[in-house]
Amino acid sequence: MTWLQPDWPAPPQVRAASTSRLGGLSQGPYAGLNLATHVGDDAQSVADNRALLQQALALPGPPLWLEQVHGCEVACLEMPPREFLPIQADASYSNHPGAVCAVMTADCLPLLLCDRTGSEVAAVHAGWRGLCDGVIEAAVARFSAPPAELLAWLGPAIGPQAFEVGAEVREAFVRRDAVAAEAFVPAGLGTRDSGLENAASRTNLTAQAAKPLASLVRGIGGRGVGERGDVPTQAICSSPESRAPSPVNKYFADIFLLARQRLQTLGIDQISGGGLCTYSDPEHFFSYRRDGVCGRMATLIWIEP
Question: What is the pLDDT of residue 80?
Answer without folding.
Answer: 62
